[in-house]
Design a protein that fits this description.
Chain A: Belongs to the sulfur carrier protein TusA family. Chain A: Pfam families: TusA. Chain A: This is TusA-related sulfurtransferase. Chain B: Pfam families: DrsE_2 (PF13686). The structure holds 2 protein chains of 2 kinds. Chain A has a single domain, classed as TusA-like domain (Translation Initiation Factor IF3, 2-Layer Sandwich). Chain A has a 4-stranded mixed β-sheet, covered by helices on one side. Chain A has 2 helices and 4 strands; from the N terminus they run E-H-E-H-E-E. Helices cover 27% and strands 37% of the residues of chain A. In chain B, strands 4-3-2-1-5 form a 5-stranded parallel β-sheet, with helices on both faces. The longest helix of chain B is centred in the N-terminal third of the chain and has 18 residues. Chain B has 2 domains: 51 residues, no CATH class; 149 residues, DsrEFH-like (Hypothetical Protein Ychn, Chain: A), CATH 3.40.1260. In chain B, strand 3, helix 7 and strand 4 form a beta-alpha-beta unit. The chains are: A alpha+beta, B alpha/beta. At the A-B interface, helix 1 of A face helix 3 and helix 6 of B.
């Protein structure tokens, strides 16, 4: 799945729990250029719903994909503005 | 009640009582219809009025934090940092025990009350014994550490970095005998209820915690 995107940066928030995966994702995406894709690695099961909700309610970001496997949840977020 | 609906249907209303902007075009006698230029001017006027009444369009959240126990310190900070991640302009007004969260020293030693919470693993009669609050607080702190849950200090520092405005109620500062320097750097002091009320009035989300 991840091979589909040209990942500019990977953020590892494994171990962190709510609200840190979302908060750190926001911080990391702000450092990227427009159009760049951020990969987020999390172990918090709540990150699946939370990053989805955050991306839907936040301007300038787009959630491309979310995957689950090996106890790691992967999120792909593009900065759109 | 809307008297228009009680008075009868629209066709009973004499044409002259119908506001010009609601009247169907065919009812307007020729010559009295506003010109395109007049309508355009009116649209400009209304758009200007609308621009004045709406703010910059940014989303705002206002939280009033009134509690200072370890468990109750979390919700305002979690919501504040998350809202900041959503792009909200966030203000958290801390009053009474909520002030403890902003107190640099005291925020690191927030306690959990072992009484009054039936979900505690000990009966209230036992929980009321001296030292029990310390026991339950240690228990909670261990859970927080084991679960990698952010500490209050981490959440506060993160929120400050994200631009959340933390306000310490001046009246409570005086009441508790605190000093401005007791609070984290970046905390706003010298504010009162009117400041909080203005923020709430302008906010899209208002919460009392």
């Amino acid at each position: 799945m991840s091979a589909e995107y040209d990942i500019a940066e990977t953020l590892d928030v494994k171990g962190a729990s709510c609200p840190m995966p979302v908060v750190k994702t926001k911080g990391a995406i702000d450092d990227l250029a427009e159009g760049a894709v951020l990969e987020v690695l999390a172990t918090d099961p709540g990150s699946m719903s939370d990053i989805d909700g955050w991306a839907a309610g936040t301007e300038g970001v787009e959630l491309l994909d979310q995957t689950e496997g090996d106890d790691v949840y992967k999120h792909y977020v593009r900065r759109t503005a | 009640m809307n008297t228009d609906t009680l008075d009868g249907s629209a066709e009973d209303v004499p044409a002259e009582d119908v506001p010009a902007d609601e009247a169907p075009a065919e009812d307007v006698p020729a010559g009295e219809a506003p010109s395109r230029a007049e309508l355009a001017a009116r649209v400009d006027e209304l758009e200007a009025a609308l621009a004045e009444t709406t703010d910059d369009g940014g989303k705002k959240m206002s939280i009033i934090a009134t509690k200072g126990t370890l468990d109750m310190a979390y919700p305002p900070l979690i919501l504040a940092s998350t809202a900041a991640a959503f792009g909200y302009e966030v203000t958290v007004f801390h009053t009474f025990w909520g002030l403890e969260i902003l107190h640099e020293e005291r925020s690191k030693n927030l306690k959990l009350s072992s009484v009054g919470n039936p979900n505690m693993p000990v009966p209230n009669a036992v929980a009321a014994l001296p030292g029990m609050d310390r026991v339950t607080t240690k228990m909670m702190e261990k859970k927080i550490a084991d679960n990698d849950t952010a500490t209050i200090e981490e959440l506060l520092e993160t929120s400050l970095d994200m631009g959340v405005e933390f306000q310490a109620c001046q009246m409570t500062i005086d009441l508790m005998g605190y000093d401005e320097d007791d609070f984290y750097d970046g905390v706003t002091t010298g504010v009162g209820a009117a400041t909080a009320l203005r923020d709430m009035a302008e906010a899209d989300i208002q919460l009392l915690v």
